[in-house]
TrEMBL record:
Xref: Pfam families: Zn_ribbon_3CxxC (PF13695)
Localization, UniProt: Cytoplasm
Organism: Patella caerulea
Protein's UniProt name: 3CxxC-type domain-containing protein
Residue stretches in coiled coil: none
């Protein structure tokens, strides 16, 4: 896992309660790392109807090479590394704390 990714980052599964669109994101951040239930700091907006949503399921990030939550692989992502981050729908990015550094 990349050295610049905090242990409070998770992979989240989302579904909009209004239009039922579903998506996943590896840019979900929790407040109480390791305590159950983990509290999501920032939601995301649905790309279809712009409703603010929180994930219904969280997972610790997994390496895309070895599929382990804890690994020694350098700079690997939970899922597709070349998939872009929708900062226009991310409430963390909109708050002035960008998830992805350009």
């Amino acid at each position: 896992m990349s050295k610049n990714r905090g242990s409070n980052q998770r992979h989240g599964y989302f579904r909009c309660s209004d239009c039922r669109q579903g998506w996943e994101s590896s840019h979900v951040y929790v407040k109480n790392n390791g305590q159950f239930p983990e509290q999501v700091q920032f939601g995301q907006e649905c790309g279809n109807c712009i409703k603010e949503c929180k994930p219904y399921r969280l997972e610790k990030l997994r390496c895309s090479m070895c599929h382990q939550q804890r690994c020694v692989c350098e700079d690997k992502r939970h899922n597709e590394p070349n998939k872009g981050h929708r900062s226009d729908l991310c409430l963390r990015c909109k708050s002035g704390r960008p998830c992805v550094q350009n």
